[in-house]
Specification:
Blueprint (H helix, E strand, L loop, with lengths): L2 H39 L16 H38 L1 H15 L7 H29 L8 E4 H18 L4 E4 L6 E4 L1 H19 L5 E7 L3 E8 L6 H4 L21 H11 L3 E7 L3 E9 L5
Parallel strand pairs: 2-4
Antiparallel strand pairs: 1-3, 4-5, 5-7, 6-7
Helix pairs in contact: 3-4, 4-8, 5-6, 6-8
């Protein structure tokens, strides 16, 4: 056998050995991948498949890991929704039944004559509690509409400053009745945003209600507005007890009620609704708090051209 033939045989053997080793490695890799997939299916969702970027299986493994991540996120979201549903039922049991029982108690006292000279006072208390209950039910209904995507926003150019000014005028009688001073810093100008008018009114109302509820008896409340390069801003502030950083990080969650004196009166829906509406108008919402000095909720919305 010539030397050329010997070298040919050696090269052929090396090539065959290379491909056999490559096939063996592929079989091992496939076996390892199947083993990891079995672990994931069995419930170990933290496992992931790792391969080199240049490996033949890399695109397939990348897609598999994406599917596992998506499944894990869906499972976490489903658990969060289920937890929120249970919390909602618990809150409904307390926040609806308790005031309703109280209203019925006052009305029974009036009807059976035990209220005596306090009948008018009892009637007013029952009326106030009934309105509070209606407000809560309205919030629940709106949140349900948002969740079901049944609330269609009508977008149009809106002069945000004019809307703020006109809506604040309607709040003055209530603020005067509760002896709360309103500070307003709104430029005499036109700043247009693309949004839904009713949604903007609801957002402002929720923020004012929040400020009045928690800060009204501690000092002034206020509304400010200004413009940036691309956005229009407005904020509603109060001088109440404020919130801790931990509470601020969760204050826009629906049904969230913190432990501080500021978060015990509400139902945990007003700010959540405001956040949902702001985000649907491509805006942002945030909160800053310095207790008994200034706690503000700030909204930013993209600028728009006039009609």
């Amino acid at each position: 056998m010539s030397s050329e033939s010997i070298w040919f045989v050696i090269c052929l053997v090396l090539v065959i050995a290379f491909f056999l080793d490559r096939e063996r490695r592929s079989r091992v890799r496939i076996h390892e991948t199947l083993h990891i997939l079995e672990e994931i299916i069995a419930g170990n969702e933290n496992r992931r498949i790792h391969v080199g970027d240049k490996e033949l299986m890399a695109p397939l493994v990348f897609k598999i890991n994406q599917l596992v991540d998506s499944y894990q996120n869906d499972k976490i979201n489903a658990l969060r929704i289920e937890t929120a549903r249970k919390q909602l039922l618990t809150n409904l049991s307390h926040d609806v039944r308790t005031p309703l029982t109280s209203v019925l108690g006052y009305l029974d006292a009036i009807c059976d004559g035990t209220a005596g000279e306090e009948a008018d006072e009892y009637l007013q208390i029952a009326k106030n509690k009934a309105y509070t209950l209606k407000e809560y039910i309205d919030e629940l209904f709106m949140m349900a509409q948002l969740d079901a995507d049944e609330m269609e926003l009508v977008f149009e150019p809106i002069d945000l400053l004019e809307l703020l000014r006109s809506e604040l005028i309607g709040w003055l009688p209530r603020l005067q009745k509760e002896n709360v001073r309103l500070e307003v810093e709104i430029p005499d100008d036109e700043y247009f945003v693309m949004g839904d008018q009713l949604a903007l009114i609801r957002i402002l109302g929720n923020l004012l209600q929040n400020a009045l509820r928690y800060g009204g008896r501690h000092g002034d409340i206020g509304v400010s507005a200004w413009t940036g390069v691309n956005d229009v801003y407005f904020e509603v502030w109060d001088q109440g007890p404020g919130l801790s950083r931990e509470e601020i990080s969760r204050v826009f969650e629906r049904l969230y009620k913190g432990d501080s004196s500021r978060t015990t009166k509400g139902h945990g829906l007003g700010l959540a609704i405001a956040k949902e509406l702001v985000q649907r108008m491509n805006g942002t919402i945030s909160m800053e708090s310095t207790p008994y000095k200034k706690t503000c909720v700030r909204i930013s919305l993209p600028k728009s051209k006039k009609k």
